[in-house]
Amino acid sequence: MTTATTPPRPATGAVGTSHIRLEGRDKVTGAARYAADFPADGLAHGWIVVSTVARGRIRSVADTPVLAMPGVLAVLHHGNAPRLKEDFSGTFGPDATTQILQHDRVPHAGWPVALVVAETPEQAREAAESLTVTYATEPHDVDFRPGHPAAYTPEARPVRPAAAEKGDVEAELAASDVVVDARYTTAEEHHNPMEPHAALAHWDGGRLDVVDTTQGAHATAQDLARLFGLDPAAVRLRSEHVGGGFGCKAQVRAHLVLAVMAATLLARPVRVALTRAQTFTLIGHRSATAQRVRLGAGADGRLRALEHTALSATSTVQEFVETSAAYGRSLYDARGHRTVDSVVPLDIPTPTYMRAPGEAPGSFALECALDELAERCGIDPIVLRGRNEPAVGPVSGLPFAGRRLLDCFAEGARRFGWDGRDPRPGVRRDGRWLVGTGTAAATFFAGAFPATASATAHPDGTFTVRIAAADIGTGARTALTQLAAEALEVTPGRVRLLIADSDFGAAWVAGGSMGTRSWGWAVTLAARDLRERLALGGGVPADGLTVRSDTTQAVGALAARERHSYGAQFAEVAVDPGTGEIRVRRMLGVFAAGRIVNPLTARSQLTGGMIWGLSMALHEEAVRDTASGTLVNADLAGYHIAAHADVPAVEADWLDDPDPEDPVGIKGIGEIGAVGSAAAIANAVWHATGVRHRNLPIRPDRVLTAERDRAGHR
Amino acid sequence: MTAPTSSVITLHINGEPHTLTVDHRTTLLDALRERLGLTGTKKGCDHGQCGACTVLLDGRRALACLQLAVATEGRAVTTVEGVADGDRLHPVQQAFLELDGYQCGYCTPGQICSALAVLEEHAAGWPSAVTADLRPEAGPPALTDDEIRERMSGNLCRCAAYPAIVRAVARAAQERPGESGTVAA
Known about the structure:
The complex is a heterodimer.
Chain A: H1 24-29, E1 44-50, E2 56-62, H2 63-67, E3 72-77, E4 89-90, E5 93-94, E6 105-106, E7 112-118, H3 121-130, E8 132-137, E9 163-166, H4 169-174, E10 178-186, E11 198-204, E12 207-212, H5 217-228, E13 235-238, H6 254-266, E14 270-273, H7 276-282, E15 289-297, E16 303-315, E17 336-346, H8 359-377, H9 381-386, H10 405-416, E18 429-430, E19 433-445, E20 452-457, E21 463-466, H11 476-488, E22 495-498, H12 515-535, E23 545-550, H13 552-556, E24 564-575, E25 582-592, H14 599-618, E26 649-654, H15 677-689, H16 700-711
Helix pairs in contact in A: 8-15, 11-12, 14-15
Chain B: E1 6-13, E2 16-23, H1 28-35, E3 54-57, E4 60-63, E5 76-78, H2 91-99, H3 108-123, H4 145-151, H5 162-174
Parallel strand pairs in B: 1-5
Antiparallel strand pairs in B: 1-2, 3-4, 3-5
Helix pairs in contact in B: 2-5
């Protein structure tokens, strides 16, 4: 640890001022290279073959005729693939989805059953599509539904337990003046980063050299080494530019496993890229959810009971829980407080973390239920939040490390024009449109993971900082440069920041809104330490002066607090009751999310998250055919994500949110924008139409059905 | 006697001729990326659904993943690598850069090529699905934000940088020669 010998001074003003992305020029000229953009001498191309049945065993893989096709180099399948570590446990714990081509079981449709490698992509594709695989099929169940007999509540999860309870919910509900009991559902969602996963692997002088698209080069390299039983030092993995992640690029995936297998067997460079359709079954997704919220309150809206239960689906391969019900644990207090997440294993691909995991669907249900409570109590929804502001963590009892939720609402209300809003639903018309406004709260935890960084001073007065961070579009590269410059007390132009190389040492992934917080901490410590050493005099040797940092101790010493970012989401919608069309007219989010390093890129990240909420509220829905067990809309035409024409003026801004106790002060902004935004839209749809839409997405047919039901025609 | 499965073709890309032998199955996208080292044009879906591979073909926007390389012989292809004038960025690129019209950058080459075409199409008086008045005497529509959103809707951005992309296109439109105040805010 370092000791500050001089107080920090605003030498550069770098942090907190807008900087265009350092890699921006490369991105607008096409020079930025992503995983599938790297050439290699003697490159061979792998094409993955996936199962067409939802459950069963592989009977045969007819590789002989395929091997005779032009350019085909290899057909890998469970009968000939290299063995992996069966008990693999990686950065995120045990992960049986990595066991590619290790057995004849087919756990879901779209599971990898073979890899065809050929000289050209065209040859590989034709050969892969020619490969006949036969199966012994078994009955499957892909039907996610509440009350499924196989549902269970997972025990003893180290982070975020599945269940938390205090007080007596039933007694408090019985004693309440007003009770809201409502059920909500959200649809299965898929990350769909614009860049499909791809990896290029080859052995170079005894080292495995990999270019992958990953949210954490070091973590993925370590996991890869563990999976293949390699010396971790023998694996180098880079991911200079990553075309979006959102949670689906944090783990070792099939393309990477297969690229390494093929490169090893063929002793030449092999690239494996997923097709868009394959990304719907091989990289995880967000489960559909079925949720129930029961709120009990006095006539004044003060909560007595809060119960939130949620069910999500997982696979038979690996348990993953979408922790929707955990959302309210730090946000709203009640004497009876019960939040339980359950999960049901189905014959579907394994879900994973997806932007605001738990919080996105959980906030939809709870923030809509709060709106229903406000309506029932005849209280403005913002006033209702004000009456339920806890002094300490409702379940934990811990103090808050800053909680400016009500300030966000006040500032947002002022800017959105909320004051004087007519609370009555269904009374504002604009031509064929019914118009309404809605609001919701947002919160996301601000965690931190240990990271290491190095900072080098060069004789010419410039600096190089290295950290195995990832910039998946967050702006981390630029923000970390600004932080390093601040700590070094130089202008950012004198700092060269290198990222996304596993050789730079341990660092947390770009995930959980913890990337820039965790990496920024390590970068700041290394840079500050270097500045202090330089201040002692002695000059810089010709080969530079390097110091390293490791935040393991500092992160461990962080006092236990309810440490979260907050936000107030606002939306205005117009609904055409004749066609069922919903247009979002404007959105505003006001956030308190710690120190904002780069306002230019922070705004993009926050509005991007809010638009994810819009997309969740109105568009995204993966539909599974129960008969075949496959998705019926596994492409970007059938699975609609918000496009330009869906997105109105979206504004995001923030309040100062200092935490003097926190050594970094950054809380992370990757997810908070995507929390509560779907609820704000759903609440606005109610305000426009008078109908509560509790099932996402709010499709035109759902609007029309609701209108028909209201009109009494059955 | 089987028909040949490859041909020697000459592609005209960013003003330069490139002669190569291509498999007839090779798309323009794969020819650019795998054969010519022009990896700025991105593969997002390979199905014509995302817009990431948008290039200009004889000045009109086209999806390189839906175009066979052999079918583009003799046509002028402009990719993102050919948009800037040497080291000087095109105003559309400059606006994306300064206004943060991207995040991860993967859809950006396609967005930029599309934006170039949007400005051309608009300048040529083409209406869009949201143009209110289609009578000839109404003249070309103002390039409002809604017009930009509609015309750019073939280019998906999962980071959802849409608001900044619209601002960037609007600014680039205002900087067109002879443009003065026809753009509604």
